[in-house]
Amino acid sequence: MSPSERQVVAVTGVTSGIGRGIATAFAAAGAAVVGSGRRTDKGEEVEAALRAESHDFTFVPSDVQCVAECAAFVDAVVARHGHIDVFVNNAGTVGPDPAAGWDEIDEEIWDTVVDTNMKGTFFSTQAALRVMRARGQGVIINIGSGAGEILAPEMPQYRASKAGAMFMSRAIALAAAPLGVRVHTIVMYRVVSEAGDRVLASRLVGVDPREAEWIREETAATGVTADEVGAAMVKLVKYPSFLVGPNFVVR
């Protein structure tokens, strides 16, 4: 496949877990992938690992909490490859302490979670959509969470951020469709990842050790892996262009 025929894919939050799995899957499928993240050392590790397998991957340090950096990342992809075919808003966080109760959440925790999961998703989408509008084609995929659909007392800041981001994604899908751009949300439930492990650990505090071990084993055995999410993403972008805005659930 020549460079001009390669699909150009941009993925935020590639330094671990789901983001790394998505970047790896697209790169293995022959795409030219550019990934971003806050942890430069981890991003460079991902870049080295994928290039060692002869994949076309470039890491760009970027923090989606900063609107200017959202736009700069998109500009960096276009400067390198000329356009963007697929943009994946994967960057997300549950915050420094998933076990924090409603009366323990301060402004810093709230802002970190909401700015990453909701503000970052919107402004990255905005920047990518402006580029795709010029070509009249493209796919934007946002990563949602079952936590944004299910009512529970834990992690109100995370639930609010994901619920807002998912509703926003559907609204943008309607605006983007006439421009030739598809916008979808992948709603994650039981996914084995670094963030998922942290949330699970917070929920098992005080649980009987034997029961906790059973829950961990059950989650590991039935959860979807980051590699499986990546493989599903590669298939999703091939769906017909008339599919506009539906949420796809990963359990």
Order of helices and strands: EHEHEHEHEHEEHHEHE
Q: Helical residue percent?
A: 40-55%
The computed structural class is alpha/beta
Largest sheet: 7 strands, parallel
The pLDDT mean sits at: 87
- Overall geometry comes to globular
Low-confidence stretches: none
Secondary structure: number of strands: 9
What's the CATH class, please? Alpha Beta
Taking the alpha carbons of the first and last residues, their distance comes to 34 Å
Numbering strands along the chain, what is their spatial order in the largest sheet? 3-2-1-4-5-6-9
Number of domains: 1
**Number of DSSP helices?**
8
- Provide the β-strand percentage band: 15-25%
Question: Can you put this structure into words, describing what you see?
Answer:
The chain contains 8 helices and 9 strands. With 251 residues, the chain is an alpha/beta fold. It has a single domain, classed as Rossmann fold, CATH 3.40.50.720. The strands form 2 sheets. A 7-stranded parallel sheet has the order 3-2-1-4-5-6-9, sandwiched between helices. Strands 7-8 form a two-stranded parallel sheet. Strand 4, helix 4 and strand 5 form a beta-alpha-beta unit. The chain starts with 7 loop residues before the first strand and ends with a strand.
